[in-house]
Amino acid sequence: MPELFDELIERVAAELKRPVKLDPALDLRVMAEVRSRPRRAWLLRPRALRLSPLGMLARAAVIAAIAVGGTLMAMRARGAPHIAVAGAAGRPVAFVIYAPGAHTVSLAGDFNDWSTTATPLKPAGASGAWVVTVPLSPGRYHYAFVVNGQAWLTDPGAPRAPGDDFGAPSSVLTVGG
Is the four-CA dihedral 114, 172, 146, 89 of positive or negative sign? Predict the structure, then answer.
């Protein structure tokens, strides 16, 4: 059976290697057809552009927002410092989770650049509860608890954030003004 298969492959390869004779006038016919069709250079055609001052202002605002957003994303990617939302002027917010048997618990969120070490919780007695108080300015925050440096847990007392962007679950907290 393998001999038949090898023979079939050789016959197919020989057929594919055979030169094909083309009509000498084929190139002329193709080029004549291309030349006969109307040009569709719609992109190169001149057009009148009418913009109101308000339209110009809106376009300029969009361009500026894109430029500033791109610059901020580039700064964050390079590890440049960015403006933190949390600060001493913020309202103290207590974060509590029940994690009996945990060795370490930390709070990671958009207020501390999702650092798993910047905001450690302290055990509250022998009950298995862990607590930390963080000053937060008014706004909306996404966060999660990190247990033993590996397990990311949502806050059972807060709503879950929609669309977990990075695969880890997170909760939502809104701090009023």
Answer: positive
Structural domains in the chain plus CATH codes: 2-36 (no CATH), 91-175 (2.60.40.10)
Output the DSSP codes for 95-116: EEEE-TT-S-EEEEETTTTT-S
DSSP H or E segment with residue 65: helix 53-77
What is the pTM for the complete model shown? 0.49
CB burial readout 41-78, b (16+ within 10 A) else e? eeeeeeeeeeeeeeeeeeeeeeeeeeeeeeeeeeeeee
Summarised one tens digit per residue, pLDDT across range 122-147 is 998 778 888 999 999 998 999 999 99
CA gap 79, 169 in Å, rounded: 24
Dihedral (CA of 50, 53, 55, 60) sign? positive
- Tokens 């190139």 belong to 27
